[in-house]
Amino acid sequence: MSRGNQGVDESDGSPTAGTDRYGPPCWFADTANVADAGIRDRFAEDWPDCWTVAGDMLDWDREYETVLNRDEGHLAWFGDGRLKPSHNCVDRHVAAGRKNAIAIRWIGADGERESLTYLDLQHEVEAVAAALRSLGVGPGDVVTLFMPNVPELPVTMLACARLGALHNVVYAGFSADELADRMASADSDFLVTCDGYYRRGSAVGQRNTADSARLQVDADVTGVLVGRLADDPDLGRDYHSYGALRDEFAGAEVDPVARDAADPLFVLYTSGTTGEPDRVTHTTGGYLSYAAWTATAVLDIRPEDTYWCAADIGWITGHTYGVYGPLALGTTTLLHESPADHQAGGHPWASIERESVDVFYTSPTALRSMRQRGAPPADEYDRSSIRLLGTVGEPIDPSTWHWYRDELGGGEAPVVDTWWQTETGGIAVATLPAVDPMQPGAAGPGVPGLSVDVVDDDGAPVADGEEGTLAVQRPWPGMCRRLASEGHGAGAGRDHPDAWRYVTSDRAVRGPDGYVTLLGRDADTLDVGQAAYGTAVVERVVSALDGVTEVAVVAISEDDEVAAYVSCDRSSTDPDALAGRVRARVAREISPAVRPNRVIIVPELPKTHSGKVMRRLLADVVSGRGYGDTSALRNPEVVGEIETVTRRQE
Ligand code: 6R9
Hints:
Layout: H1 26-29, H2 39-45, H3 52-55, E1 68-69, E2 76-77, E3 82-83, H4 85-98, E4 102-107, E5 113-117, H5 118-134, E6 142-146, H6 152-163, E7 166-169, H7 176-185, E8 190-194, E9 196-199, E10 202-205, H8 207-216, E11 222-226, E12 239-241, H9 242-248, E13 259-260, E14 264-269, E15 279-283, H10 285-297, E16 306-309, H11 316-329, E17 332-336, H12 348-355, E18 359-362, H13 364-373, E19 388-392, H14 398-408, E20 415-418, E21 452-455, E22 467-472, H15 481-486, E23 502-510, E24 516-521, E25 526-528, E26 531-533, H16 535-543, E27 548-556, E28 561-568, H17 575-589, E29 598-601, H18 615-622, H19 638-648
Parallel strand pairs: 4-17, 6-7, 6-8, 7-14, 8-11, 11-12, 16-17, 16-18, 18-19, 19-20, 28-29
Antiparallel strand pairs: 1-2, 3-13, 4-5, 9-10, 14-15, 21-22, 22-23, 23-24, 25-26, 27-28
This protein binds ligand 6R9.
């Protein structure tokens, strides 16, 4: 296979995105899972039946006859079908002769490795399902899982699915209050947690947090404790031992429960960068088929691949593309206890070489942090196994996009920027790597079958090149249950499928070629004078400056003033001079109206566990409002310093 690059460099005249475009190299396009240039037209003409392509990736216990059911205004994908999700992610691969293929390869914080073949996974899932059943878990129950990326987490998720119970994964770093809120709101009487885990080299206790959450929940909670720090953790009166239960039920056979396609598979709370956590419920048939199809079409994952999704499972990305999508395809999914930018052996490159990773999916935030630490020389770690790179979670600026492609993709692997949300279940806007040219800075067109538009406050489409809110005009199988029953936003209608729409909370602009550039969340928009600016527009200009690692811009109170928080490479950058360059660049390239009144240099920006910059917290700090619970952050330790620097500079 030759690695000749067919990349083209042509201007598309798009007003906001970068102007360079890159086609897939021929070695990629020749073998890609989806390479049909007419796929979007075909899907548009044949909607909703086009989605049999996703439904048919699964095994059904009762075949669906209708692709999209619209009874009484409620939309149900594959509505009359029944299926077993854990069979689809586990047993069927064993039955198909792939029992010895690795399903999950786990790499612990200190570099230890553990591999589960599909047969091992089936045995583990059955034992844990039998154990949970013995504790009273049954169809429709909600089991809260408060654990980091350890193998017990995906095993227990699949064990819940096997029993028809819903899992409710809560990010392991959350506080007792956050955990209690999520348990109470989800009506969950079961908790599987761990004694602790390792984070950046140190042991973090988890038991006390879980205990205090239980005290706050007004229910009799049945608890199970995984020993991660100790083999035999103290159980007290409140916990059963995961290890002992698993041993007791080893060898148990548990037939998976068949569920209606529209039955819930799990609940998950959204990341909450803008406010209160919100419960999202996903369906069994629609979600799982959409996870499988987008993992195939956008991430180009194949059964024989080793695939690394560097997300915490507590984030929707870890659910869809760390667990359900790759396992539905029968792939090897790598599960790292530590985030990609905090690997034990130093660089994520080491893992890519050692595990021979084919497809790598991570967040722009993690990439910026890797970039800040500097890439190892090209000959130190072999990265030639990489076939495709993906990003998710925040807009990726062209400069980081190019760095990613050059350093990890040998300057030619396709890089897909994927926009989606907890609510969408899977990728909704992205280029198909063998079909659409990539355009750094723009996520791309809607996934085939999804019709995306940019609308104004009244829900009317705006002209290409104008800013508005991203909206999806047609239902798709991965949408959450709330969207299936209501649609959302201006013009959402129950009766008429064409009136259905989902108006997201993201600002966007669409170019004449249909490519969408995301400009940041609505709630983060800078309102200055008469105009509104998406945070991403300003941040992109600043991040292109030499020496800048990360930037977040926020509005200061109601003063019409803007603050830019910037982290930089201090070895080569003079912070005072950088502040001047930031202000001049923004004024020149965007508008003097949005020139930052304050440029505050900080060591690092505060980020959620899913890598999203917490602009709301920065706005609170710079406006003197104080800030609340920081347990949703992956780096809560930086907040004190950010506050000090902000005050000192006043
Ligand atoms: C998957 C996930 C959703 C919000 C979304 C948007 C931001 C995600 C993005 C992106 C620009 C991308 N977002 N992907 N913004 N480009 N490729 O992140 O789900 O945690 O619910 O967050 O993330 O603002 O609305 P979730």
